TrEMBL record:
Superkingdom assignment: Eukaryota
Record keyword Lyase present: no
Swiss-Prot/TrEMBL keywords: Flavoprotein, FMN, NADP, Oxidoreductase
Domain called NADH:flavin oxidoreductase/NADH oxidase N-terminal: residue spans: 12-352
InterPro entries according to UniProt: Aldolase_TIM, OxRdtase_FMN_N, YqjM-like
GO MF annotations, alphabetized: FMN binding; NADP binding; NADPH dehydrogenase activity
Protein name: NADH:flavin oxidoreductase/NADH oxidase N-terminal domain-containing protein
Length: 398
C-alpha cells in the first residue's frame, strides 16, 4: 500500500501539462533500444509490446519507445525500430493504444544514427556491420568515422541528402501521430546524425551547415521547425541533446542553453538533457556523467524557462523528488531502474504518494491499493473478511 513520508505534496506525483498533453506524474520511461525489431524491416514485435506495456502498468506518467529510425539507413542496427514506411505504423499503434489505456502518455523517440548506423546488435559486439554481411552505407556531416569498433566512414551529406533527411523526419513524425503517440522526442544526442552536425568535433563542413555555431545548429532547427509545423497542436514535441561532448573543443552547456532558447521559440516543449557520444576516446565516468546531465537540466530550465528532463542513474525516489524540488528539472527520465523493476513507480509511491496522487491499476488496486486496503480493513474490523495471511486483527490494524 502506498504511504507518504512527507507532509507536503510530492512533486514527483504532481501532474504536468506540455502543450495540452497531461502526464499524471513526472515519472518518464526513458527511450531504451531493444534491438528486437523483426527481420531488418523495423517492425515492432511482442517484445516491445510486453516491455513497454509493463512500464505503463507500473504507473509511469510517460512511456517513451526507443530510438525509431526515420529512414532505413538511420537504424543503429538491423534490429532497430523504424517509421519510414506506413506498414510500420500499426504494430506501434497497438503499443500506443495499450499505454494510453493504462493512463500513461504514449511517446516515441525519432532518430537517425548517422555515422553510428549499420552496426551489429550490442550483445554481438556493437561493431560496424560490413555491407557484405547485411550492413549499409552510412552518412554524416563529414567523412569522418566514429572510430573502432564503429569503423565505417560515412558519406559526407550533400544539400540534397540533407533535404531528403529533413523530409524523412517529417514523414516519420506524421506516421507517429497516426500511430497514436501524443508526444514525440527528436533524438539530437549521443553522436547520432544531428548530434554530429552540432558538434565541431565531428562537423568539419565549410558550407551553411558547418563552421560557426549558427551553421552547426541549422539542421537541428530546420528539423525541429518542420516537425513542429507538421504536428497537430495536441501533440507535444521534445528534443534530446547531449549537453557536453566532454572535450575542450566540443559542444558544451553554453551552446546547449542557446540552442534551447531557439528550440523553444520554434515551439519545442521540453529538452531532455543527456550527454556524450560524439568522441570515442573520452573516458566517461559513470558517476560524474549523471551529475553533468542533471546540473545542465537545471541550468537550462532556469535560464530559458524551457521545461527539462533530468536523466542518469536516478534510482532513488527521494533523489528524484529532490531534483524537482530544487528546480533541477521538470521531468524525471528513468531507464535502468525500470529494467530492474517495471513497477518502479510503486516503490516511489510507497515513499512519496498518497491515495489522491497515485492509483494502482484496478486489477491490483482492489487488493493492494488504497481503495482495496481500506475496504479490506473496514470489512476485517466488521468481521466480514478474514485478516490477510492468517494474522490477527490486532497485528494488522491500528
Amino acid at each position: 500500500m502506498a504511504t507518504t513520508t512527507e507532509t507536503k505534496e510530492s512533486l514527483l506525483f504532481t501532474p504536468i501539462t506540455l502543450r495540452g498533453v497531461t502526464l499524471k506524474n513526472r515519472i518518464c520511461v526513458a527511450p531504451m533500444c531493444q534491438y528486437s525489431a523483426t527481420g531488418r524491416d523495423g517492425v515492432a514485435t511482442d517484445w516491445h509490446m510486453v516491455s513497454t506495456g509493463a512500464y505503463a502498468q507500473g504507473g509511469a506518467g510517460l512511456v517513451m519507445l526507443e530510438a525509431t529510425a526515420v529512414e532505413a539507413r538511420g537504424r543503429i542496427s538491423p534490429g532497430c525500430l523504424g517509421l519510414w514506411q506506413d506498414d510500420q505504423i500499426e504494430p506501434l499503434a497497438r503499443i500506443a493504444r495499450f499505454i494510453k489505456g493504462q493512463g500513461s502518455v504514449p511517446a516515441i523517440q525519432l532518430a537517425h544514427a548517422g555515422r553510428k548506423a549499420s552496426t551489429v546488435v550490442p550483445w554481438d559486439g556493437h561493431h560496424s556491420l560490413p555491407d557484405s554481411e547485411g550492413g549499409w552505407p552510412t552518412i554524416g556531416p563529414s567523412a569522418l568515422a566514429f572510430g573502432t569498433p564503429v569503423w565505417k566512414v560515412p558519406k559526407e551529406a550533400t544539400i540534397d541528402d540533407i533535404n531528403k533527411i529533413k523530409e524523412a523526419w517529417v514523414g516519420a513524425a506524421i506516421r507517429a501521430v497516426k500511430a497514436g503517440f501524443e508526444l514525440i522526442e527528436l533524438h539530437f544526442a549521443h553522436g547520432y546524425l544531428v548530434s554530429t552536425f552540432l558538434s565541431p568535433v565531428s562537423n568539419q563542413r565549410r558550407d551553411k551547415y558547418g563552421g560557426s555555431y549558427e551553421n552547426r545548429v541549422r539542421l537541428a532547427l530546420e528539423i525541429a521547425g518542420a516537425v513542429r509545423q507538421a504536428l497537430p497542436d495536441t501533440v507535444a514535441l521534445g528534443v534530446r541533446v547531449s549537453v557536453a561532448d566532454y572535450e575542450p573543443r566540443g559542444w558544451d552547456l553554453a551552446q546547449t542553453i542557446q540552442l534551447a532558447r531557439e528550440l523553444k521559440a520554434l515551439g519545442v516543449d521540453f529538452l531532455d538533457c543527456s550527454s556524450g557520444g560524439v568522441s570515442r576516446d573520452i573516458d566517461y565516468n559513470a558517476l560524474n556523467t549523471p551529475d553533468t546531465q542533471i546540473e545542465a537540466a537545471g541550468r537550462v530550465l532556469r535560464e530559458t524557462g524551457l521545461p527539462t528532463g533530468a536523466v542518469g542513474k536516478i534510482v532513488d525516489p527521494h533523489h528524484a523528488e529532490n531534483i524537482l524540488r530544487s528546480g533541477g528539472a521538470s521531468l524525471i527520465f528513468i531507464g535502468r531502474a525500470f529494467l530492474d523493476n517495471p513497477h518502479w513507480p510503486f516503490v516511489a509511491a510507497d515513499a512519496l504518494a498518497t491515495h489522491d496522487t497515485f492509483q494502482y491499476p484496478p486489477q491490483y488496486d482492489w487488493c493492494i491499493g488504497w481503495k482495496g486496503f481500506f475496504k479490506w480493513r473496514q470489512e476485517a474490523k466488521q468481521g466480514v473478511r478474514q485478516p490477510l495471511l492468517g494474522m490477527s486483527i490486532a497485528q494488522v490494524l491500528p
